[in-house]
Specification:
The protein is of the alpha/beta class and 355 residues long. It has 2 domains: 2-163 and 297-354, Quinone Oxidoreductase, Chain A, domain 1, CATH 3.90.180; 172-293, 3-Layer(aba) Sandwich (Rossmann fold). The protein has helices at residues 39-46, 108-111, 152-169, 188-200, 212-220, 234-237, 251-260, 282-286, 299-310, 327-335, and strands at residues 2-5, 14-17, 28-36, 48-52, 55-58, 73-81, 95-98, 135-138, 144-146, 181-184, 205-208, 225-227, 241-246, 261-269, 290-293, 319-323, 342-346. Helix 3 crosses helix 4 (188-200) and helix 3 (152-169) crosses helix 9. It binds zinc ion (ZN) (2 copies). InterPro entries: ADH-like_C, ADH-like_N, ADH_Zn_CS, ER, GroES-like_sf, NAD(P)-bd_dom_sf.
């Protein structure tokens, strides 16, 4: 079985051939059709997150050690079942998106159905082998979500970028749908959040991005307004928004996002571009605002998202397909911000490439 392996942090992925996989116990075997490329993959290949001030958060401290197979936005065909697999044999041959944020099943977060916040995670493409491979073992069939007629390349992106967007939107106030929402960053995540917000009934969605093309895409996707953070006037954004979701997450976007909040607003930070800020404390309670972190989403949220997409309520995010063999090139392009929507690596042997 061929895969693309990270053999050392900071190095390119290497094509390797390994023995065939056979599912045991409750495991199921998936033949990978598509695997989306994410900023997190770029950070893992590099080996750390930038904490600012020359400080780093090493991937080794998150339980990641090469050699490892990256890729956590996975869709594929069910091809074999372990003897105790909790899925019937007539499902073999169907295409599923895989929930990658697999927990230990025992810690307090897993018990609360928030496996994505597990204290001892087994996330696909992070602590367990991911989707840059021909086939992948999944520990339990409950992590498979049937995509029906959906494009497997698009469905793959729901496992991280879509789910992360929905997870962030679900952290906004219950009344947020009819109040102004600002999305910072109009790349793959921002577009996905815009589409999901529209599908959920958000009426006033503004997208801020320094890139004119991304602002134009946002308008075409139904954004109410767009902002260029480098040239907009204070009266265009200061105190104008009940909710802000920051898909970039650096000191400049943090400052912009907090200024944009009105009294009582919520600022949700998702992006991991990195850096550090110094925060005056009295305004947090005087305004009073909420600063909330958000990390991917739950299995239940992925099921909700796939149902929304299968019911035709969700506008598709822009997808660009590349063959799996181009994994390093794809990671370079995501690192450089050279992607209009979402990059997806596809297996040449699958029909996914031609759709
Ligand atoms: Zn991701
Ligand atoms: Zn756990």
């Amino acid at each position: 079985m061929d895969n693309y392996t990270l053999t050392e942090f900071g190095e390119p992925l290497v094509m390797r051939c390994e023995p065939e996989l056979a599912p045991r116990g409750t495991e199921v075997l998936i033949e990978v059709s598509c695997c989306g490329v994410c900023q997190t993959d770029v950070s893992i290949r590099k080996g750390y997150y930038d904490l600012g001030g020359g400080k780093k958060y090493a991937m080794r401290d998150r339980g990641m050690t090469p050699p490892m197979i990256l890729g956590h936005e996975i869709s594929g065909r069910l091809v074999a079942l372990g003897p105790d697999a909790a899925i019937s044999e007539d499902q073999i041959g169907r295409t599923f998106v895989i929930y990658p944020w697999i927990g230990c099943g025992e810690c307090v977060m897993c018990q609360g159905a928030e496996e994505n916040l597990c204290l001892a995670p087994r996330f696909l493409g992070l602590q367990r082998p991911g989707g840059h491979a021909e086939r992948i073992l999944i520990p339990h069939a409950r992590y498979l979500v049937d995509i029906g007629h959906l494009d497997p390349a698009l469905a793959a992106t729901y496992a991280c970028s879509g789910l992360t967007s929905l997870g962030a939107l679900n952290k906004l106030a219950p009344q947020a749908k009819t109040l102004p929402l600002l999305l910072i960053g109009g790349g793959g995540l921002g577009q996905s959040a815009l589409n999901i917000a529209r599908a959920l009934g958000y009426t006033h969605v503004t997208v801020a991005d320094v890139d004119r093309t991304k602002r134009e895409i946002a308008v075409a996707s139904g954004a109410t307004h767009t902002l260029d953070p480098l040239s907009c006037r204070d009266e265009d954004f200061v105190g104008q928004f009940a909710s802000v979701i920051d898909f970039v997450g650096n000191p400049a976007t943090y400052e912009f996002g907090l200024k944009a909040l009105r009294r009582g607003g919520r600022y949700v930070i998702v992006g991991l571009a990195g850096g550090e800020v110094s925060q005056a404390l009295p305004p947090v309670s005087l305004r009073p605002i909420s600063i909330i972190g958000s990390l991917t989403g739950s299995l239940e949220e992925l099921r909700t998202l796939i149902e929304l997409a299968r019911n035709g309520k969700l506008k598709p995010t822009m997808i660009e397909r590349l063959p799996r063999e181009d994994a390093n090139h794809a990671l370079d392009r995501v690192r450089d911000g050279d992607v209009a929507g979402r990059l997806v690596l596809v297996s040449k042997s699958r029909d996914a490439y031609d759709r």
